[in-house]
Amino acid sequence: METEKLKFIVEKSYSGLNKQKYRALLPYLKKTQRLYQKSWDKINDEFFETVEKITGFSWKHKIYFCVLSPFRIGISSWGGDKIVRTWRENPYSMRKITAHELLISHIFTILERDFKNENLTNKEKWALAEISAFAIAGLEKKMLKFWPWILEEEKYPLNHNYPELYNLQKKLKPIYQKKRNFKEFFQKAIKIIKHEKIP
Q1: Which of 46, 65, 160, 182 has the most CB atoms in a 10 Å sphere around its CB?
Q2: pTM attached to this predicted model
C-alpha cells in the first residue's frame, strides 16, 4: 500500500520578500528544508496511517506540500494539498504544528466530503477543524510518540492565538476522550458547535 507523503518545499511567491532579501535567505531556507524533511521522514508513514486509523477517513491527496515561510508560523488549507510553516524552528520541534496544519486540511476534507448536509458556516468548520486537530495531535497516545518532548499543557493547549475557541475546546475535550469513534465525536461536536456562538 502506497503511503501519503509530505514534501517540504521553498517557493519565492510565498516569501513576501524582495529579490535581494530572498536571495540572502535562500541558502538557509534550503538547508532548513533538508533538515525538516529528514526529521519528518522518520514519522511520515506512521503519521499518515495513524491519522487514517484514528479518524476512519482516508486522506484526499497522495502528496502534501509544506512551504517554508520567513514570516508565517503555520497556515493550513481548506482540504488542499499545501500548508505553510515557519523555517525558524528546529527540525524536531516543528513536527507537532506541521502535523496540526495537515490535520486541519484532512478535517476540512472530511467535512466537505462526508458532512456537507450539516450546513456548517465557514467559522463553524474552522472551529471544528482547529479543535479536532488539537485533540488528535495531543490526546491520542499513538500520536504523542511523534513529539514525546512536549509538555502536558502543550498536548491540548489553551494558550494559543484563538481565545474564542477556549470554551468550546473545554466542552469538546471530554466528548473526544469518551468517543467510541471519530465519526461519533464529529456528530456530537457539530451539534454543540451549532448551538455555540463563536465570537
Answers
A1: 182
A2: 0.95
* CA 26 vs CA 32, 70, 104, 119: distances in Å: 10, 10, 28, 43
pLDDT in tens, 125-152: 999 999 999 999 999 999 999 999 999 9
Instruction: Report pLDDT digits (tens) over 90-104.
Output: 999 999 999 999 999
CB 120: neighbour CB atoms within 10 A? 17
Sheet holding 74-75, edge to edge: 5-9, 63-69, 82-86, 74-75
User: Which mean pLDDT values do the consecutive 10-residue runs of the chain (199 residues) have?
Assistant: 88 87 94 98 98 96 96 90 96 97 96 90 94 97 96 91 92 96 95 86
